[in-house]
Write a structure and sequence with these properties.
Helix 7 packs antiparallel against helix 8 and helix 18 packs across helix 19. A 12-stranded mixed β-sheet has the order 9-8-21-20-19-10-18-17-11-16-12-13. Strands 22, 23, 24, 25, 26, 30, 31, 32 and 33 form a 9-stranded mixed β-sheet that branches. The chain is built from 21 helices and 33 strands. A hairpin with a 4-residue loop joins strand 32 and strand 33. It is 29% helix and 28% strand. The protein folds into 5 domains: 90 residues, Beta Barrel (Thrombin, subunit H), CATH 2.40.10.170; 198 residues, P-loop containing nucleotide triphosphate hydrolases (Rossmann fold); 64 residues; 141 residues, no CATH class; 43 residues. It is α/β, with parallel strands linked by helices.
């Protein structure tokens, strides 16, 4: 279809044409030039009283590939709408085995890019906050996981844990593109330095065995004087391997006041509790088909920097020696781990500069994700051969992009400021910069901002006139009430959303942190979140010191004779006899012949691992019909459990519960 004809002055890179038919901004056009066609793109449309003019940039002349023009186009030449096969072949979008990132703007053409080129030459994904950088990164991660390439993600805000869940909300959009919702739970493993903050993750421990003197020096939270440095090296020379306690003892033998500052710094590193002689195996973290997420949510920045420095250093060394397979590293909030030097030096800066400069030689690719490219180390971002740029408006960030990305013109810079959410500029891995509409995710998106105000609920089950809505710490059900209705084979007579007052407690048992949820309405430890049912706890059970000395070993033994309890407790036999007699009279111990055992309520403390809650409460704007009353006090329950365990933390919250009554049936939920 003819769209118009070229007018005015032309060059080998741009031209204008007068529009005679409908044309749109970003539309691709083609122009006959000698024996070939030229591919161009409309970048602006201007209208005055009597004509409409389109400004175009020339992408190239189609031969085997797109080649630059050697002569300007002639004024008066017809401009045609470019057909999809011509666009496809000209831009090299026919890579059938490539990674599907989205569709070309204003076309239905799929943009499939060469994943090998993408992963081996580093990527930068840049956008202002809320413009879709994590969403776009997740689409790329899905493509990588589908090909069983090992992944390691540094995730400061727990945005990527949602890879474990399918994106059922955009099922129809996915279907239009030949895709389906998918969860990657079998491939994703979370790690964290602190499982008290992120209890769903596996404890990450970093190796102290391979730590060198220079590494230890780098990790210290203060810059040392020459005298302090010399003293530390002197202490380390006397040790076969680095051990924080041994270093402190060695320093303590020195007769100088300088040692006290050093001892304090070593103590600080020790208290981070992230180093171990039995570290998380690197071969466990990097495996074909596995995505290891380093969940740093809630971890202080100074500790996060240390974790990234040591982990990336160890992974890089292991890769160089072939101890782990080639893998791809995704670094979210990259400006915090490798800041531009004028903004300070992070502990992790040096190793990231090294990996970005040398990693590709060893099969280690990196994706830098940042909302502030002007604050990201220039030497790091310059190593990225491919850029995916979404909306950016900060002038400093725009200047940084223009300076570091080839092919960005002043016109393109203007477009970047006005990009709609979900549209990205792809540069580097393709022959020409492309504006693409990022495809829907197959997994659920986890990077949304918390809705403080609360949006208008659309589901009919959230629109009751009498319902309330509050921002509360809550454990939500995995499915909505609407989904429950749709999947039900029975007709529902009544339904309501009930909030059950609860106490979420983190206990320490030996070296393990355990999470439990207690119903404050009925004093039960919840074992079934969906139905809010549990096992009754003993009410008002306060024990004397001597009784506790008996019960703690009794919890371990479960069944015992007084003699066995004597051997375990190391108390006087008379004390044991009196305490056992007293506990039996109270019904806390049960006697059968000469064998004692715990009553059913005490067995809860013995078998506490059976009652764990694997979901943490989080603040959410939630609609509900009824809120139950808390009849039991937090303080009493904390006091009860503190008799047997160390309490790490406790917080009141609510459990979302769907009370459903079916016609001609009993109540269920």
């Amino acid at each position: 279809m003819i769209l118009g004809e070229i007018i005015g002055k032309t060059s080998t890179t741009e031209f204008k044409f007068k529009i005679s038919r409908d044309a749109k901004k970003y539309q691709y056009v083609k122009i006959k030039a000698e024996n070939n066609f030229v591919l161009a793109q409309i970048i602006e449309i201007e209208m005055n009283s009597d004509e409409t003019i389109a400004s175009c940039i020339i992408l190239g002349c189609k031969e085997d590939t797109l080649k630059p023009l050697r002569f300007p186009l002639n004024p008066g030449t017809k401009v045609e709408e470019a057909d999809e096969p011509f666009i496809n072949s000209s831009l090299g979008l026919e890579e059938q085995k490539g990674a599907f990132l989205g569709t070309l703007e204003y076309t239905n053409l799929k943009v499939n890019v060469d994943l090998n080129k993408l992963l081996t030459k580093h990527i930068a994904i840049i956008a202002k906050s809320g413009s879709g950088k994590s969403y776009t990164a997740s689409c790329l991660i899905e493509e990588i996981l589908d090909r069983n390439i090992p992944l390691v993600i540094i995730d400061p805000h727990a945005e990527y844990t949602s890879l474990k869940k399918p994106n059922t909300k955009e099922k129809e959009k996915l279907k239009e593109l030949g895709l389906e919702p998918k969860d990657y739970s079998r491939q994703v493993q979370e790690y964290t330095p602190d499982i008290t903050i992120n209890p769903d993750a596996t404890q990450l421990k970093l190796s102290i065995s391979n730590m060198s003197s220079s590494t230890l020096l780098h990790l210290l939270p203060a810059k040392l004087s020459n005298m302090q440095t010399g003293l530390l090296y002197s202490s380390l020379q006397n040790l076969d391997k680095i051990n924080f306690d041994d270093i402190i003892i060695s320093l303590d033998t020195e007769e100088t006041h300088v040692k006290y500052t050093l001892m304090n710094l070593i103590e600080q590193i020790k208290k981070l509790n992230i180093f171990s002689e039995s570290p998380t195996p690197l071969q466990e973290i990097v495996q074909p088909g596995k995505c290891s997420i380093m969940n740093l949510k809630g971890i202080p920045p100074e500790i996060s920097e240390v974790v990234v420095y040591k982990l990336v250093s160890d992974l890089f060394e292991a890769r160089k020696f072939g101890d782990i397979p080639p893998f791809f590293l995704v670094l979210e909030e990259a400006q915090n781990f490798a800041p531009e030097r004028s903004f300070g030096e992070a502990k992790s800066s040096s190793v990231l500069r090294k990996v970005l400069a040398e990693g590709r030689k060893f099969g280690l690719g990196v994706a830098l994700i940042s909302q502030r490219p002007s604050r990201l180390d220039k030497s790091c971002i310059s190593q990225c051969s491919t850029q995916i740029i979404l909306k950016v408006t900060n002038p400093n960030d725009l200047r940084s992009i223009t300076a570091s990305v080839e092919g960005i013109t002043s016109e393109t810079e203007k477009e970047i400021k006005n990009l709609p959410i979900g549209t990205a500029l792809l540069v580097g891995v393709v022959s020409q910069p492309l504006f693409i509409n990022v495809r829907p995710r197959k997994s659920e998106h986890g990077g949304q901002a918390i809705d403080i105000v609360g949006k208008q609920a659309k589901d009919s089950d959230l629109q009751d006139k009498d319902g309330s809505q509050d921002l509360l710490p809550v454990i939500k059900q995995k499915t909505s009430l609407k989904d429950l209705e749709l999947s039900s084979k029975k007709e529902i007579k009544e339904k309501e959303i009930v909030l059950v007052p609860c106490l979420f407690v983190q206990l320490q048992k030996e070296a393990n942190i355990l999470n439990i949820l207690i119903n404050l309405n009925d004093n039960k430890i919840i074992i079934d979140l969906e139905h809010a049912v549990g096992v009754s706890l003993p009410a008002g059970m306060l024990l004397s010191e001597s009784q506790l000395k008996i019960l703690k070993p009794a919890l371990q033994l479960k069944r015992f004779t007084p003699a066995e309890l004597f051997n375990k407790s190391r108390l006087q036999f008379s004390e044991i006899y009196d305490a056992v007699k007293n506990l039996t009279e109270k019904g806390l111990l049960v006697k059968e012949n000469n064998i004692f055992s715990l009553n059913k309520q005490l067995q809860i403390f013995s078998d506490i691992e059976k009652y764990l809650c694997n979901i943490k409460p989080d603040y959410a704007k939630i609609k509900y019909d009824r809120k139950l009353e808390a009849k039991f006090k937090k303080e009493d329950l904390v006091r009860l459990f503190s008799q047997f365990f160390q309490i790490v933390s406790s917080r009141e919250c609510f459990l979302e519960y769907f009370r459903v009554i079916y016609k001609e049936s009993k109540e269920t939920g």
